[in-house]
Amino acid sequence: MPRTPFTFRGLVVPVLTPFNNDSKRTLNLSLIPQYAEYLAKKKITGVLVNGTTGEGMSMSVTERKLIVEAWANAVKTTKQHLMVQVGGAPLPDVLELAKHAESIKADSLLCLPELYFKPTTSDQLAEYLKLVGAAAPNTPLLYYHIPMFTNVNVNMGQFLESLGKRIPNFVGIKFTSPNLEEGALALHADNKKYVIFLGNDQLICAATALGMDSVIATSINMFPELTLEILAEGKEGNSLRARELQDKLSRAVLAISKHGNWVETMKVAMTLLTNINVGPTRAPLKILSREVTATMAKELQTLGFQVTM
Fold this sequence. Notes:
Blueprint: E1 11-14, H1 32-41, E2 46-49, H2 61-78, E3 81-85, H3 91-103, E4 108-111, H4 122-135, E5 141-145, H5 147-150, H6 156-163, E6 170-175, H7 180-192, E7 195-198, H8 204-210, E8 214-216, H9 224-236, H10 239-257, H11 262-273, H12 290-302
Parallel strand pairs: 1-2, 1-8, 2-3, 3-4, 4-5, 5-6, 6-7, 7-8
Helix pairs in contact: 1-2, 2-3, 3-4, 4-6, 6-7, 8-9, 8-10, 9-10
């Protein structure tokens, strides 16, 4: 079992990784304390490091460790829950990253499936996660279900129902899929044993109606107050107000994301909408042109958001 029960619920922000605007896109670790403070002031109590939003799969093992260590230091001050994504690498590296995250006392681990020898059954996925869990046995482990990227389509309701006690430190999933029927099955699996973090920015309101109370979504970076309000109103059963707020967030997310790859556009939006300049993306992702950035800024202003150019 993990050293402490996994009691965290609410919002976790998948943080963007700050890179310098140099030829190698080196890590800008000096920004992380300011980034953590910004989120803490906005009442965001959890951070996810090295996920999709954080370009975790575009970094070396050494770089991923450096980012995790910088956040581990920052959250000592801000008291935020630190979740570390360790997957998306060869298995020996995944296990090394899991051990490292436990050694710096990360609060929880999130892990993608094996991305080459992809699991096709609940049993295969469980065997893979069992290896990861054993590498960091004292840290709560969650599975990262994002089939649009991984093409791993194991049904999450069936997977969680079949787990039993095979992975002692396994506590839940990040569910990044529009299939809320499957999400509801996951939520109710094994007598609601597992925590389900919704990973879809535009379905927060709908997910709260199903009983979900936890979210990991990129837009929390730029719209923390709005996201917190959607979650609060949804949980209170104020569905009309929650829907209005969700519409506002969804329009903003669309105005940002339609201009390119998800992370490319979100990095630009972060700089436009906050005082945290996370810098450029790293290859293979591209940098948006000034014209596209200006168009995005105008559209966000039209929607009523304050933009700094």
